[in-house]
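Re: [help] complex structure
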Amino acid sequence: MDFAPSETARLPVAVKILVAGGFGAGKTTLVGSISEIEPLRTEESLTREGIGIDDTAGVELKHTTTVAMDFGRITLSDDLVLYLFGTPGQDRFWFVWDELALGAIGAVVLADTRRLAACFPSVDYFERRGTPFIVAVNCFDGAPRYEADEVRLALDLDPGVPLLLCDARRRASSKEVMITLVEHVIDVRAREPAVNLG
Amino acid sequence: MVSSPNEPESVWLDEEAGPVVRPYAVTGGRTRPTAGDFDLITLVVATQPVGSVREPLSPEHSAILRLCQRPQSVAEVSAHLDLPVGIVRVLLGDLLDRGLILARGPNASTPQPSQRVLKAVINGLRSL
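Output below.
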């Protein structure tokens, strides 16, 4: 941007964290339990040329399509605001993920033990992209309970990726998830200062 | 505008009305902003109260300035105005061009926050 630092200095710094996972894994619940505002919805309106060439299967012949993203806001201090963005679940919207992931601190992949496979694409995506992420297993009422190690094995997760159990409805639990992620990001960056800059 | 169900649409829609509710109507068909590089989390703030702006403003531009009397992200502007992000970027570009907003966002040279900022995030989360 073309501003003198003095002009924009009165604006806070904004940072973002992504919350990914399969449909119904509790992304918006997690965002809502920690956000200071009711989760908001923003839409990206896309022309067909914006849709990945190899991912057009199932996309009807229409000129625009809309991708919705739910997000929340946490004012951490006068000069620091955290935004949490739920990623759109549809696989054909990877390019929206690319836009969201650009500049994101890192990502939380929410896993639902009733549909564990639903979070595989998210894990693959962040691994491929080199975005630091953690896995949070959302413990739904009535869902099968597994030990963290069992889920880790089922996901074939790198040993360096933190995994924790959570209850996305509880603010304290969601807070712990976010802190775990940012601590992990600091660790990753300390180990590999040259990567994850994009 | 309230139309009674018996009146033909043509009464209300002449050439001046332009396309109706097509999203890009509010941008005059423009899909790219003329200024700025607006990320979803770029923060935007109005440089003055809406009432003190002398030049004519579209309803959407006015709505953005009213909303941005306190800093708001591009995503929040989009959500509160119920307009797609692409359109909001164009409208914000207009306001930036006219000096009616300031914007601060991640840029190409520093896409990632520093370790210092990350530690501030953790401290902020802990004290929530």
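Chain A touches chain B through 49 residues (CB under 8 Å).
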